[in-house]
Design a protein that fits this description.
The chain is an alpha+beta fold. It has a domain of 47 residues. The protein is built from one helix and three strands; from the N terminus they run βαββ. It has a three-stranded antiparallel β-sheet with strand order 1-3-2. The mean pLDDT is 94.
Amino acid sequence: MSGSIYKIIEVVGTSPNSWEEAAMNAITAASKSLRDLRVAEISKLDLKVENGKVTAYRARVNVSFKLED
């Protein structure tokens, strides 16, 4: 069979500092259990709010990785 097959999963990263850090945390965690990560796409950004203040940034990230033969 020619070509490659990829699987896409969704992970959510969090950070008290920024959406960028939340996305990096998601990728760092995913890379610990998945091999051959290829592409990551931010699908949603949101905030956790407590008492009128932002307490956490969250990034929902779709991550693709190559399936092994």
